[in-house]
Design goal:
This protein has 127 residues and is α+β, with helices and mostly antiparallel strands. The protein has one domain: 2-Layer Sandwich (Beta-Lactamase). The chain is 25% helix and 25% strand. The chain contains five helices and five strands. It has a five-stranded antiparallel sheet. The longest helix has 11 residues. The protein is globular and about 40 Å long.
């Protein structure tokens, strides 16, 4: 279904990202997850909508995957969950029209996942 090269590239780019990230097929099967999603128990080969107990049986009501895949562009939506802001992204892969990366900035806080320690500002700037 997906090449090992694509799976390796996903892990290289998204593995250490401080939010849960999924690589998803257009049929909503989770193909791969990053480190934080794995640690949080996100199951590979399940349907992504199964992670949302409030979702319908085949799609979440706020899902923008179809738009992202059809228009071949990243789609972003801002929502509030339990008083916390989440910005959700659906990013189609350049070389595979049936696969996209999905994550939400702020999701880790809502899920209560461990996030990366913030570095002091002087460590973030290198000249």
């Amino acid at each position: 279904m997906i090449s090992q090269k694509t799976l390796d590239a996903f892990q290289m780019m998204w593995g250490p990202f401080p939010e849960p990230v999924m690589l998803v097929h257009k049929n909503r099967t989770i193909l791969a997850v990053n480190d934080l999603a794995r640690q949080s128990g996100v199951p590979v080969e399940s349907k992504c909508f199964s992670l949302n107990p409030k979702a319908a049986t085949t799609i979440c009501k706020h899902c923008k995957a179809n738009v992202a895949l059809r228009e071949r562009r990243t789609v972003c939506v801002e929502e509030t969950h339990n008083g916390k802001r989440i910005i959700g992204y659906w990013m189609p892969l350049k070389d595979d029209e049936d696969v996209y990366v999905h994550f939400g900035v702020g999701t880790a806080a809502v899920m209560g996942c461990q996030q990366v320690q913030k570095a002091p500002a002087q460590e973030l700037v290198t000249l």
